[in-house]
Specification:
- By secondary structure, the protein is α+β, with helices and mostly antiparallel strands.
- Helix content is about 40%, strand content about 15%.
- Keywords: Metal-binding, Nucleus, Repeat, Zinc, Zinc-finger.
- GO terms for molecular function: DNA-binding transcription factor activity, RNA polymerase II-specific; RNA polymerase II cis-regulatory region sequence-specific DNA binding; zinc ion binding.
- Belongs to the snail C2H2-type zinc-finger protein family.
- It holds the Pfam family zf-C2H2.
């Protein structure tokens, strides 16, 4: 990479670490090598210093708007492949999938926690479908899915659920939504008439 750069007479390069000002790129580079040895690669356009040539190259793409990594889903462009791959996960609802249990997980951490459950003994077996569980409570909860009896009913919208914990999760959303609708109507009704 060339160290010569033509700057306008009123333009200077600043060290991004300590703020020292330089007229010539070669002086800024020399300064960084001597005073900030971990930041040896310097951008010729803005004077920002980087630890590795790769970091400098990624940064320089911003100056020339060279963003070669394109998300196939939405068309957004990225300066490096890593950021594009990280972004692409927003388009996948649950990217981590357990084939054994046919379950999906949003994060790698949740998936890893689930995989640990593969090694835990499951002595409680459903006599209807053969699915095994770690304890009797989980087996009892599972057996309810075979009866299809929906005993747990939401008092706000009458939607029914097989399991109580599904009703509780639903009610948080249902009550919040209904209270907001109710309170927004009250606010509208309580507004004074327009003059």
């Amino acid at each position: 990479m060339s160290t010569s750069i033509n700057l306008p007479s009123n333009k200077f390069l600043n060290c991004t670490v300590c703020g020292t000002t330089f007229k010539f790129l070669k002086h800024l580079r020399m300064h960084c090598h001597q005073n900030h040895p971990t930041l040896s690669d310097v951008c010729g356009q803005c004077g920002r210093a980087f630890r590795t040539p790769g970091d400098l190259e990624t940064h320089q793409r911003d100056h020339v708007r060279k963003r070669p990594h394109l998300c196939q889903e939405c068309g957004r462009v990225f300066t490096d492949r890593r950021n594009m791959k990280k972004h692409e996960k927003v388009h996948v609802k649950n990217p981590y999938y357990c084939k054994e249990h046919r379950k999906s997980f949003k994060t790698q951490e949740d998936f890893a926690k689930h995989l640990i459950s593969h090694n835990i003994p499951k002595p409680h077996v459903c006599n209807v479908c053969g699915t095994a569980f770690q304890n009797n409570t989980l087996l009892k909860r599972h057996k309810l899915t075979h009866t299809r009896i929906r005993d747990h009913v939401c008092t706000h919208c009458s939607k029914a659920f097989i399991q109580k914990f599904h009703l509780k999760a639903h009610m948080i959303e249902c009550v919040t939504k209904n209270n907001w609708l109710h309170s927004s109507r009250i606010l509208i009704w309580e507004l004074p008439p327009a003059p």
